TrEMBL record:
Pfam families: Lys. PANTHER family: LYSOZYME C, LYSOZYME C, MILK ISOZYME. Belongs to the glycosyl hydrolase 22 family. One of its GO terms (molecular function) is lysozyme activity. This is Uncharacterized protein. It comes from Podarcis muralis.
Length: 128
């Protein structure tokens, strides 16, 4: 009975065949550990909200963009045209990463790339 407080935490960290779907608090804690709280002037809440709206906290989320043939990858839906290389089309690959690395349960590559996006976009988080 005393272990019931662990249930929400464990539920937020359960891995499925489609990747890890974080709980909001578990993701916030991980993003804070990876240095996003206050990064480039954006609060941890900004980053968690972006992950919620972009991927519903799903590390394996993808979205194909009909308008240009690019694909968005991972918890922050990082675009293959500019930020990562998916092998299907030319990419600027500014994060110097394979897009598939953004689909794992490890969000460290997503965070590193998100920092590059914010640092190299005229609109900062407006890039999303």
């Amino acid at each position: 009975m005393k272990a019931l407080w662990l249930l929400p935490l464990l539920t937020g960290l359960l891995a499925t065949g489609e990747g890890l779907v974080y709980g909001r608090c578990a993701l916030a804690q991980r993003l804070q550990q990876l240095g996003l709280d206050g990064y480039a002037g954006y609060s941890l809440a900004n980053w968690v909200c972006t992950a919620c709206h972009e991927s519903s906290y799903n590390t394996a989320a993808t979205h194909y963009n009909d308008y240009d043939g690019s694909t968005d990858f991972g918890i922050f839906q990082i675009n293959s045209r500019y930020w990562c290389q998916d092998g299907s089309q030319p990419s600027s690959n500014m994060c110097r990463i394979q897009c598939s690395e953004l689909l794992t349960d490890n969000v460290a590559p997503d965070v590193a790339c998100a920092k590059i996006v914010v640092d190299n976009s005229e609109d900062g988080m407006g890039a999303w």
